[in-house]
């Protein structure tokens, strides 16, 4: 029997990833909703094999797209699971969620969400070190009890009321796209993050006060109140050294070297370069 869970997945040109994502929930959840940003590949062809609930909307950013889905689409279940197209659930996690939601009196009335650990794979390798695992994210929540922070970058779901508990098992983040795509994606991310920082939007983000309640609150606080107070450019180098040497990122092998260098140094340096550029030519 399928669980009364509504899975919401945002997509855009995800033909390499969406199949694994949908296969992990198609025989488990009784509602799958795709919000597509007019994909030009086989994403929708693959999605239609698993669900007929597909909406299309021009993409602005992840937060706006997901909140639009919550506000405008018919969602039949009390519990909602957010998944990205390059993510999928493990069998252990699916069983754990089923045991929690389907067993009477296990979930207390004031529990409105669950935090789940993300396990990232890069070039086929589990990125276990460098402070990258475990990382907890609110992904399963009661309808009307959570929304996405209104940020252009690094947005998270936050509870509007009630409490959340942690689940023991992981969901998998394993994007099958190539390194050129990874670099292009992070270049776009850097532009958005630099824009937010330059305009100091973090003081005015709606729902932002909820971020202090989740397991990611420590990372967010350190980033906003310590990392961004360090000197421009130097902080990227210091962060990489901390992540790769002190937090043992070198144990992730050659794939880890590529990942931690690009994501932990090059990306952070690129954000600073774009901040510098915006100040120099404003």
Automatic annotation (TrEMBL):
Pfam families in UniProt: Glycos_transf_2
Domain annotation Glycosyltransferase 2-like: ranges: 6-146
The organism's place on the tree of life at top rank: Bacteria
UniProt region (Disordered), positions on chain: 194-215
InterPro entries: Glyco_trans_2-like, Nucleotide-diphossugar_trans
Coiled coil: none
Classification via Gene3D superfamilies: Spore Coat Polysaccharide Biosynthesis Protein SpsA, Chain A
Basic and acidic residues: compositionally biased ranges: 194-205
PANTHER family with a match to the protein in the record: GLYCOSYLTRANSFERASE, POLY-BETA-1,6-N-ACETYL-D-GLUCOSAMINE SYNTHASE
Name this polypeptide is given: Glycosyltransferase 2-like domain-containing protein
Source taxonomy: Bacteria, Candidatus Joergenseniibacteriota
